[in-house]
Amino acid sequence: MTVKDIKSRPAVIREETTVYDAIVMLFLEDVGTLFVVDEKGLLQGVVSRKDFLKAALGSADMSKIPVGVIMTRLAQIHTVTEDEPVLQVVRRICENEVDSLPVVRPHGKDGFKVVGRVTKTNLARLLMELGEGR
Amino acid sequence: MTVKDIKSRPAVIREETTVYDAIVMLFLEDVGTLFVVDEKGLLQGVVSRKDFLKAALGSADMSKIPVGVIMTRLAQIHTVTEDEPVLQVVRRICENEVDSLPVVRPHGKDGFKVVGRVTKTNLARLLMELGEGR
Lengths: 134, 134
Hints:
By secondary structure, chain A is of the alpha+beta class. In chain A, 37% of the residues lie in helices and 25% in strands.
């Protein structure tokens, strides 16, 4: 079983989106993490509920700060590819203490297209299916 | 395998705590959900990152609103007990679309003592251990 079998659709936004609008999108899409992409759809960063709460604690105006200011940048992000075994991804999620990982495909010289997300919800569902012998 | 084998320590606060202080505690305890208890340690409600983000979107002053105003109240909360089989809890987490459940012990007439929490992180770790044949 690989990432392809359990991944979900990713929710993406642009770097210029305000923190306020991004939080609204988080609720509309009902996800815990948004992936920040450029005009070509290439991954630039990740913002999670935790990042948004940190921003909310600060006194800055959330309707003015762009998401690019608070996101975790590409160099610090863990990613997975569709053909990775699920067990390897489970380990990456546990060891890096993240709620989700972007599923990517290499693109051009140093770029990554975002093609999905793997979350702890995907893992919980997998555990349920395994437990029920499906 | 039952809830007792996989549960974590709960992070609890009082209803009077401000939303601001509660978010700070969320970071200090490194959890996604806080359980709200009364002076006897009995469960009154639950507040999650999602509830805090909703509060942050509003214009109210987070350093003035008490957590009791934004929490989900006891009647609406799903709970589990220590002797429940893990598979049943996995199903409850998936079906109710929550990140964690309070582990409780009945106390008095209608009360519940909070004795732990089960989260998607516990489930991801369990999946990792099962996959590694531990």
